[in-house]
Amino acid sequence: MLEDLTTLASSPTSWPAAYPKGYAVVDVETTGLARHDRIISAAVYRLDARGEVEDHWYTTVNPQRDPGPVWIHGLTSEMLQGAPLFTDIAEEFAARLAGRVLVAHNAVFDWQMIAREYARAEREAPVRQRLCTIALSKELGLPLPNHKLETLAAHFGVVQRRAHHALDDARVLAEAFRPSLHTAAAAGVRLPLHECRPLTEWNDRPAPRVGSQAGYGGHRTTGWRPARKRPACPYPNPGRYEVGKRLKQGMRVAFSGDTSVERELLEDRATEAGLHVATSLSRLTSLLVTNDPDSGTSKVVKARQYGTPIVDEAAFGQLLADVEPASQR
Fold first, then answer.
1. Long-range contacts of 265-272 (CB under 8 A, 24+ apart)
2. pLDDT per residue over 146-168, tens digit each?
3. Contact (Cβ atoms closer than 8 angstroms) between residue 182 and residue 5
């Protein structure tokens, strides 16, 4: 079946009208994987509606901190010392992204890193939709033993020259995305597009402590951030939220996916309102907050299994404004 689709994809075909008009294939290298890590290099391949390359762009970025796992990305402090700050390249980066679907391998990671950098710069990334090539590969049923970029590249005969170099990774992904896109178009496959909500608030935490902890890429890093511990909720769980009613102090709420207000700020507000912020979802969870209820994440799947109500961020914000006090004992 896949061979038939590939043959169709290589022949002239009418293009799905609902497909995007352009794409920005992106790769960013970072100091690590945590929310406070920074971008140290970025590359963008701009593609037209049918996946043909229009141009490409690359820059290093001074993260103003330790570059992290040099053995992975190869960028040392000395190499980054004279690089521009993110605020210096934000406008040009935005021009490369504007009006296009952001395409990346494990796109939620690249998107979150980009969104955080723009929030720090008190700007908004001009991205409204993203497409993950892992999700597209699954949608097409590609016979891949795993979902690494090098595996996808090998499937389409794309030669990778410098793994974990943003420009080469973006090139490889662009070359692998084009046949994937044509295969999807030939089969009339609906692209797995997801909404991107730019962060509207950001609050930097204190600098990380120095220590030793497993981190980026399964290696050990020199910096780590202890898990953030919240005080125990002082109110008992009154049960799940019922649609149309008020939230009540003590209710357990969980979050999944992108939020336009930085996640920890949103969690802080929930805690201040007397809600119990849960890191996982169980039968005791009162409410799941997500802007992408069709994402198929483990939390969304469990919420549907348990019958846990799901609301988006905007609705949750309205509910937070009028939380019912806990019942007096």
1. 265/201, 265/202, 265/203, 266/313, 266/316, 267/230, 269/320, 270/320, 271/230, 271/231, 271/233
2. 989 999 999 999 999 999 999 99
3. no
Note the pLDDT tens digit of each residue in 199-255. Answer: 888 877 644 433 333 344 433 333 333 445 678 899 999 988 988 899 999 999 999
The Cα 133–Cα 160 span in angstroms is: 16
d(CA 123, CA 125): 7
DSSP result, 65-121 = S----HHHH---HHHHTTSPPHHHHHHHHHHHHTTSEEEETTHHHHHHHHHHHHHHT
Strand ranges inside the chain, DSSP E: 22-30, 39-48, 53-60, 101-104, 129-132, 193-195, 209-214, 220-224, 252-256, 276-277, 287-290, 310-311
259-289 per-residue burial string, b: 16 or more CB within 10 A, e: under 16: bbbbebebbebbeebbbbbbeebeeebbbbb
Strand spans (E) along 155-283: 193-195, 209-214, 220-224, 252-256, 276-277
Closest CA to 192 of 205, 180, 175: 180
Alpha-carbon span 324 to 250, nearest angstrom: 10
Q: In terms of residues, how long is the chain?
A: 329
CA distance 224 to 214: 9
The secondary element (H helix, E strand) that includes residue 313 is helix 313-320
pTM of the model as a whole: 0.77
Of 216, 235, 242, nearest to 276 by C-alpha is 235
Do 79 and 62 form a contact (C-beta atoms < 8 A)?
no
Q: Which of 313, 321, 264 is nearest to 293 (CA)?
A: 313
Measured at the CA of 166, the angle between CA 70 and CA 214, to 5 degrees, comes to 40
Site of tokens 């974990």: 164
> Quick check: 29 and 22 in contact, CB under 8 A?
no
